[in-house]
Design a protein that fits this description.
By secondary structure, this protein is of the alpha+beta class. It has 5 helices and 3 strands.
């Protein structure tokens, strides 16, 4: 009988599993789409749905509850400010898991977990923007080198 078996252990200790899902939740909230293995994605889906549901009621106790789970102030503010408003009319199913083939090294099944109606610009948050000042500084450096010769 399968009584009391509620989640996948993923061959990790409970502390490691808790830290893993906390980091994955923060990344999913920040970038709104992440690539991971299929079992991890399937375990993460109910957790992110619960986090967004908690964020829909903007009360102090829910903010404290989310902060104790996520331990990241920016993630908590994004859940309450952006995601709760985006999914206000939706009653559930805020995320989806899409199968993405197999990893080349160990043939593990991979998946993309993303938020429904996600912002495509959220993926580019940490990538530095190419600016003209860098190009100009390179030109100035090359000109000074030529002038010294």
């Amino acid at each position: 009988m399968r009584h009391g078996i509620g989640y996948r252990k993923l061959n990790k200790t409970s502390e490691h599993r808790k830290a893993l899902f906390k980091n994955m939740l923060n990344s999913l909230i920040k970038y709104e789409q992440i690539i991971t293995t299929l079992p991890k994605a399937k375990e993460l889906k109910p957790q992110i749905d619960k986090v967004i549901t908690i964020g829909k009621k903007n009360i102090l106790s829910n903010k404290k509850r989310l902060f104790s789970k996520l331990q990241n102030k920016h993630s908590v503010t994004k859940v309450f400010d952006e995601l709760s408003k985006r999914y206000n009319s939706r009653k559930g199913g805020y995320s989806r898991v899409l199968k993405a083939g197999f990893r080349t090294g160990d043939d593990a099944p991979m998946a993309v977990i993303e938020l429904v109606d996600r912002n495509p610009e959220a993926k580019k948050i940490d990538k530095p923007k190419k600016t003209k000042t860098k190009e100009k500084s390179k030109e100035v450096q090359s000109e000074t080198k030529l002038a010294k010769k």
